[in-house]
Amino acid sequence: MGIYTIRLPDVGEGIAEAELVEWHVKVGDVVNEDDVVAAVMTDKAAVEVPSSVSGTVTWLGGEVGDMIAIGEKLIQLEVAGEGNDQVMESATPTSASTEVSSSDGADHKVALQASVQVQAEEVPSRTKDIPDEARVTDAKKGASKRPPASAKATANKPLAAPSVRARAKEEGIDLRSVLGTGPAGRISHHDLTNYIDEGGASPVSVGAHVKNTSVKEVKVIGMRRKIAEKMSLSKSRIPHITIVEEIDMTELEELRAALNKKHAGSRPKLTILPFLMRAIVEAVRDQPELNARFDDEAGVVHQYGAVNIGIATQTDNGLNVTVVQHAEAANLWKNAERVSDLADAARAGTIRLEDLTGGTITITSLGAMGAIATTPIINHPEVAIVGVNKMQIRPMWDGQQFQPCKMMNISCSFDHRVVDGWDAAVFVQKLKTLLESPAMLFVES
Amino acid sequence: MSDIKTKLLIIGAGPGGYVCAIRAGQLGIDTVIVDTQAPGGTCLNVGCIPSKALIHASDEFYKMLHANQGPLGISLQSPKIDLAQTVSWKNGIVTRLNQGVAGLMKKAGVKRIQGQAKFVDGKTINVVSTDEDHTIRAENIVIATGSAPIEIPSLPFGGDIMSSTEALALESVPTSLAVVGGGYIGLEIGTAFAKLGAKVTIVEATQKILPQYDDALTKPVLEHIKSLGIDVQVGTKAQNFKDGQLHTDKGVIQAEKVLVTVGRRPRTESVGIDELSLSMNGPFIEINDACQTSMRGIYAIGDVTGEPMLAHRAMAQGELVAERVAGHKVVWDKRCIPAVCFTDPEIVSCGLLPDELQDAKVAEFPFAANGRAMTTEREDGFVRVVARASDDAVLGIQAVGVGVAEMSAAFSLAIEMGATLQDIGATIHAHPTQSEGFQEAALRALGKALHI
Fold it and tell me: Given CB atoms, is B247 within the 8 Å cutoff of chain A?
């Protein structure tokens, strides 16, 4: 048996390190070649790291939230044959086995005896009714001591008698938020009663209006940390100017309805997004300075011929910006299809890295929840972002009377370092004109 | 074939399953329990209880055998043991307990079916029984199928190669016994047979026996079993057994019988658990803190869910699941699971070991300074406390010594109640008892030891 070390591979984007966001295995697990063992976060997406060998996990190279350098030891497995490395000396904080072993209880301790299992592995013949994985896993659990992680968890639990803990559980109270007045902060029934009386919790049987002083700590890791970093970067580096304009979408909505009706079942259903993408393509034809990325360290604005439109997409893990490459070269339906495919992939966690990079301008939309106006944050290092607000029927004065119109606001932000207010206003007005007179979208320029 | 509908179906009537059934019955839940064997599972039938019976018998015999050499002034003439009668006595205890458990379940209104269960789907079980087959549809199912001994391919069970089950049923003492595996089962049974007169050799592949414990705890055990004449060969790998010889990588061991105790594997294959595609944790069924598996309405408890494979853990889980099914808000919230090793001397461990707590305050009190230990001729061992240095909260307690298994309750209680060193030090411990060592260890950690 040997030890095989898997190091963090180059996950692209030229990054030197990645954040460990998930372990798919723990010490003692048996993994097969190509099984995913961990996920790390790059600047844009979680990347799964597969195992290049089959074996039993003996060591993990960090805890979730740790930064791991490319090429650093990520995981070790015990494998048949020689392996490629030596055993790490330090124990992992996420070891598999749990409690102190042995006891009379079951009379049958894997743990205490499993060391001999190792020898069994080396015997050539096997009886088929013994699962190999059971033997290997048991052996490893037996060979390892109780994990520090488990011990740490035990050590950090509040001191309280079982009856106090049971009562807290029944009343939905997190004992970590209760002040224990006993020795070593031990929480008594009296402490718990005081906590409830002071409105510190909402017992099931009590009315709704009580104070809740609980504090839940949620570590910002993974995708959320990346989003936080990106937003901070954008907001701290880019002086934003935001313009809100209202657009009469009545005609476009009629056109959209007609197209969807005509092509129902044969083509993907059109939302407003592909029309807006088309409008942006047209608008930046006249204002290429808005379809750009600003390298502020080099002092250069890169204006692009390709209109790669980022679409901010909400996923379970947070905001993703998928990128429809070359929107200028596709028709409405093609762009609609690509937006839909990318959103599905982002939500399913199967999005490719190349579909998250290379944007030149971004659309952000909250759909039906889109409010009246928003303050979109530019997707650094781009220089413009178009925010879509909620559409609703509002009365509009036509000079003689109020008419019900399908109105939609757009909120657009610009990098004021390289985009003047005038240019921003021209761009917004261009979008308004194109969307209010949708025929203009299809006029060959 | 009969069709049964029930609120709760439990597969396996071991310590986890039968406790779950009894508690569920007490809570008014319509409950069915299925097992191929008599109630009690491995623990009661071929595990804890039988081994403790054998250990007791061997202890008594050994005392009598060596009474003449002792300082107590007792003399005896050639004591003998009839192991067949011992086993019969042990079987009587097992039968009484089988009947007791069956009676408790019946009293709780639990329907018991003897037969082999197999999953049809996540809500339906087929049971093949000697009298009548059943299809049982249940709202909730508990998998409590336990574990089985692991076999070494080159040392297959059968004939003179035994698992613990066969060893505990021997009706004569073998002249020589090789025990493959230096864990606690091998040590317990090996020590018992050594006291009964067998020449015992323990073969352990790693460099130490009882690898789960630190050297301080295992040292008294190693010293004592060596004094009993047991040959302990660590760093030795057993290979095969032929013509009364166990071949190892270090040589040959003469052995009339070979006991293989290299661990346990979860018992999942016979009930069709694989077909449910439950999330697994290695070979074990993965559960959350409510003993729920990845499939709604299916729970798993006991050895089949992994370590520690202890009967009392399974019992606590069984009770928890019954409460859950009854709609109570309970989750696994234990601070410690006591672990007892019935070697000679015994080892007890509750909570954290010294190296598992940063900034730990650790103190030992040796039984060599304990009056009660002296009066029983066994002064080996100690009690140890592990406390958080910042506030003296006691988070771990261990002991090694004769009879310390019975102290495990005090240790567990102290940790579950959140005791501090001051609490234990201020509690009157009866004199003369070995438990005074517990109080003294706490006082010693506080720098206030009285008797050392």
Answer: no
Q: What residues of A are labeled active site?
A: 416, 420
Q: Which long-range contacts (CB under 8 A, 24 or more apart) does B129-134 make?
A: B132/B1, B132/B2, B133/B1, B133/B2, B134/B1, B134/B2, B134/B3, B134/B4
Tell me the shortest Cα–Cα distance from A171 to chain B, in angstroms: 9
> A-chain residues within 8 Å CB-CB of B156?
127
Both A356 and A398 in one domain: the answer is yes
Q: In chain B, what's the furthest Cα-to-Cα distance?
A: 71
A168 close to B (CB below 8 A): no
Check CB contact of A96 with chain B, cutoff 8 Å: yes
Structure tokens at B225: 């079993």
- Bridge partners of B299, per DSSP, are B142, B292
Residue in B251, B244, B151 with CA at minimum distance from that of residue B199 = B244
pLDDT of B244: 95
Q: State which residues of chain B have pLDDT below 50.
A: none
pTM listed for this prediction:
0.60
CB of B145 closer than 8 Å to CB of B304: yes
B212 with A145: Cβ contact below 8 A: yes
Supply the pLDDT for residue A59: 87
Same domain (yes/no): A329, A376: yes
SS3 at position B219: helix
Is B335 in contact with A157 (Cβ distance < 8 A)?
A: yes
Spans of chain A below 70 pLDDT? 12-15, 43-44, 86-152, 200-214, 444-445
What pLDDT sits at residue B82? 96
Closest to B245 in 3D by CA, of B236, B257, B259, B232: B257
Do residues A120 and B262 touch, judged by C-beta distance below 8 A?
yes
Last residue of one domain, picked from the residues B302, B325, B348: B325
Angle formed by the axes of helices B184-195 and B215-227, nearest 10°: 20
B451 is catalytic: no
**Do the domain assignments include residue A141?**
no
Quote the ipTM score: 0.76
CB contact under 8 A, B342 and A123: no
The residue range of the domain holding B385 is 339-445
Element at A445 (helix H, strand E): none
- Strands (E) in B379-439, as ranges, are 382-388, 394-401
Task: Give the distance from residue A203's alpha carbon to the nearest chain B alpha carbon, in angstroms.
Answer: 13
Query: Does residue B23 sit in the same domain as residue B143?
Result: yes
Using a CB–CB cutoff of 8 Å, tell me whether B206 touches chain A: yes
